[in-house]
C-alpha cells in the first residue's frame, strides 16, 4: 500500500467506524430472514474495520465470527477491536478463498469486486447445509438516471437494478429469500464521520491527499443528491 493514492486514502479513512453504508438493523434483518441459529458459524467477508461484527454476534449470541479483509490496515483494526474475544477470529484474508463451513456469509458492499454470480458460485462449497449468504450490492432504483448519478458509478458499468441482481444470484444456483434497501441513516453512518476528517485534512493537503478528499466529497454529494436513484440493496440468498 505504498502507492501515494492508497497512502492518502488510509490517511482519510484511518480509524473510521465504518468503511461503507450499514447499520445494526441490516444485520438483525438478515438474521431474522435466514433464521440464524444462536450458535451459527459466520464469515464476515471483506469486514473492513469490523463495524458489523458486534451486530453479527448479537444475531448469534453463542456463535463464532470469522472476519477477514484483504487490506492489512482494515484487518488489523478489526483484530484489535475484538482482541481477546474468543468468539471472534479477525485477520487478513481473501474473500475469494473462503473455505467454511459457514451457516452465514455476510458481505457488506464488497461482493461486486468478485461479481455476484462468480462470487456466489465460489462460496457455495463454503456454506454448511442450509447456509445462506447476505450481501449488499449497488443498485439502481429508478430507470431515470441523471448523468451525475451515472458518473458516480462510471467505474462499475455492471451495476443493475433489483431484477438484475436477483437474476445473477439465481444464475449461481441460489434462491432469493428477501431483499431490502439499506436505509438512509446507514449511509449517513458512513459519510457523516468523514465530513470532519475531510475538514481537518484539507488545509495543506498535498496532491494525492487533495485528490482523495475531493473524491470522497463528490461521492457523498452524489448519494445525498440522488439517493432516490441509487443505493445498496441488501439481499438474502440460500443455495438450492
Written description of the protein model:
Strand 4 (102-107), helix 5 (116-123) and strand 5 form a beta-alpha-beta unit. The N and C termini lie far apart (39 Å). Strands 1, 2, 3, 4, 5, 6, 7 and 8 form an eight-stranded mixed sheet that branches. Helix 2 runs parallel beside helix 3 (53-59). The chain is globular. The chain has helices at residues 4-13, 24-34, 53-59, 72-81, 116-123, 147-152, 162-171, 184-201, 207-226, and strands spanning 41-45, 64-69, 88-92, 102-107, 127-140, 160-161, 174-181, 230-239. It has a single domain (18-184, 229-239), classed as Rossmann fold (3-Layer(aba) Sandwich). It contains nine helices and eight strands. The longest helix has 20 residues, at 207-226. It is of the alpha/beta class and 240 residues long. Helix content is 42%, strand content 23%.
Task: Please give a quick description of this structure.
By secondary structure, this protein is an alpha/beta fold.
Amino acid at each position: 500500500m505504498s502507492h501515494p493514492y492508497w497512502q492518502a486514502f488510509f490517511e482519510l479513512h484511518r480509524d473510521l467506524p465504518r468503511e461503507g453504508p450499514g447499520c445494526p438493523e441490516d444485520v438483525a434483518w438478515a438474521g431474522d430472514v435466514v433464521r440464524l441459529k444462536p450458535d451459527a458459524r459466520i464469515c464476515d467477508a471483506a469486514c473492513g474495520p469490523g463495524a458489523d461484527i458486534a451486530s453479527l454476534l448479537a444475531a448469534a449470541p453463542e456463535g463464532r465470527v470469522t472476519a477477514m479483509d484483504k487490506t492489512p490496515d482494515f484487518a488489523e483494526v478489526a483484530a484489535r477491536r475484538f482482541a481477546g474475544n474468543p468468539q471472534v477470529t479477525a485477520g487478513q484474508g481473501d474473500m475469494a478463498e473462503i473455505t467454511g463451513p459457514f451457516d452465514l456469509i455476510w458481505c457488506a458492499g464488497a461482493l461486486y469486486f468478485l461479481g455476484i454470480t462468480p462470487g456466489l458460485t465460489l462460496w457455495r462449497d463454503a456454506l454448511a447445509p442450509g447456509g445462506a449468504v447476505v450481501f449488499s450490492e449497488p443498485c439502481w432504483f429508478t430507470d431515470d438516471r441523471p448523468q451525475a448519478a451515472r458518473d458516480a458509478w462510471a467505474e462499475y458499468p455492471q451495476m443493475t437494478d433489483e431484477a438484475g441482481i436477483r437474476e445473477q444470484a439465481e444464475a449461481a444456483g441460489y434462491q432469493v429469500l428477501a431483499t431490502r434497501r439499506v436505509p438512509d441513516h446507514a449511509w449517513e453512518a458512513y459519510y457523516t464521520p468523514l465530513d470532519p476528517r475531510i475538514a481537518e485534512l484539507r488545509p495543506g493537503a498535498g496532491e494525492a491527499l487533495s485528490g482523495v478528499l475531493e473524491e470522497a466529497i463528490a461521492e457523498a454529494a452524489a448519494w445525498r443528491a440522488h439517493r432516490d436513484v441509487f443505493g445498496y440493496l441488501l439481499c438474502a440468498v440460500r443455495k438450492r
